[in-house]
Amino acid sequence: MAAGEGRGAGGLECREHLFKVLVIGELGVGKTSIIKRYVHQLFSQHYRATIGVDFALKVINWDSKTLVRLQLWDIAGQERFGNMTRVYYKEAVGALVVFDVTRGSTFEAVSKWKHDLDSKVLLPNGSPIPAVLLANKCDQKKDGSQNSSQMDQFCREGGFIGWFETSAKDNINIDEAARFLVENILANYKSFPNEENDVSKLKLDPDLLKADSKSQCC
Ligand code: GTP
Ligand code: MG
């Protein structure tokens, strides 16, 4: 995570943040589709599994004084059993953990992903990075019977800051979920801004970039 200060066009002080956000979850749950929808307003039915990690950059004019750049790390679902996640998770300040409402097994895997995350990356103050749970493909018929209050309880117990039903296909709740995560990241940032000033920390590692160079956006 990084920040810089400068003067905007009107002479107002303006602050820029660069936040690394992970998007994780089982194979085929819709991580890439969520990012594509969020960053490029596109959706495709065609499934092409992510190999290794892919990147995208979303720039948000947060308010008149704040610019937020989200560096989104789209991590392959099939990497879970690999040993790369520790490298991928480094310096992340937030996460979207995705499951597919049409496949109950992907919900069961959510806790394993959250565990993996918390065991490999922490905020500078030692707490877990904020994570939002996304119940994706909500445009389709659900497999499983969790109601809203059970999901609330699951999030409280599992250490998620919140959850959203999303659809990358129909563009449901993706902006809202990302906004909610960024609000939390900014709140954390305010409590320890001085430890996070090194822009160079977030430069993309050329070795990681090699993993899948076709659809990088940053
Ligand atoms: P890996 O990279 O293999 O881990 O998969 P992923 O999580 O990135 O999944 P991806 O975004 O590639 O989507 C998998 C399939 O689900 C694709 O065929 C998408 O079109 C489809 N899909 C993704 N999101 C949605 C959604 O919200 N609704 C529906 N109906 N299909 C979706
Ligand atoms: Mg993918």
From TrEMBL:
Keywords: GTP-binding, Lipoprotein, Membrane, Nucleotide-binding, Prenylation
Listed PROSITE patterns: RAB (PS51419), RAS (PS51421)
Cellular compartments per GO CC: early endosome; endoplasmic reticulum; late endosome; lysosome; melanosome membrane; mitochondria-associated endoplasmic reticulum membrane contact site; mitochondrial outer membrane; phagocytic vesicle
Coiled coil (residue ranges): none
Keyword presence, Lipoprotein: yes
Protein family per UniProt: Belongs to the small GTPase superfamily. Rab family.
Role noted for this protein: The small GTPases Rab are key regulators in vesicle trafficking.
Record-given protein name: Ras-related protein Rab
